Amino acid sequence: MSDQELMQSWWQLRMQMGRLMQARHHKGQGTGLRGRDRIIGLVGYAGTSLSQRELADRVHLKPGSLTEALNGLEADGYVQRTRDPFDRRILRVQLTAKGQTRAKEIKAEHDQFVAQLFAQITPADKAVLQRILQQMIENIKTYDAQIRDAKGDDHA
């Protein structure tokens, strides 16, 4: 199998996952991987409060976009923001009781999705896949660094 064929299979998997998440999201059956559920799920997964900067990095949102999303989540009673007691400049995001309940639902939905995704894949094949994915991540980091060096861009 060629590298191009592997990339085509990877792209097909990615697109099918995206369509599934989109369809479930529109039916109110979110997988915990999109939009508001992604924010709730990540704060729940952290198990503690996160600074808005940490959360923005994890959900790959610009701070302004995250603030807008958090405003809605806070208004709907899923999260609350408080000042960090050690550094008053930092706003920390934590789940309310309602948010914790939703985070548990998201985790259950996500666990079901992951179980289905990896059904009938042996532990040995999972180990190989993990090794390959880690190597691909390292290859991308190296490639990105080479491009940045060639352009003289020192911003990560």
UniProtKB/TrEMBL annotation:
Coiled coil: none annotated. GO terms for molecular function: DNA binding; DNA-binding transcription factor activity. Pfam families: MarR_2. It comes from Limosilactobacillus ingluviei. Keywords: DNA-binding, Transcription, Transcription regulation. The keyword DNA-binding applies. It comes from the Bacteria. This is HTH marR-type domain-containing protein. The keyword Oxidoreductase does not apply. Residues 3-138 form the HTH marR-type domain. InterPro entries: HTH_MarR-typ (IPR000835), Tscrpt_reg_MarR-type_CS (IPR023187), WH-like_DNA-bd_sf (IPR036388), WH_DNA-bd_sf (IPR036390).
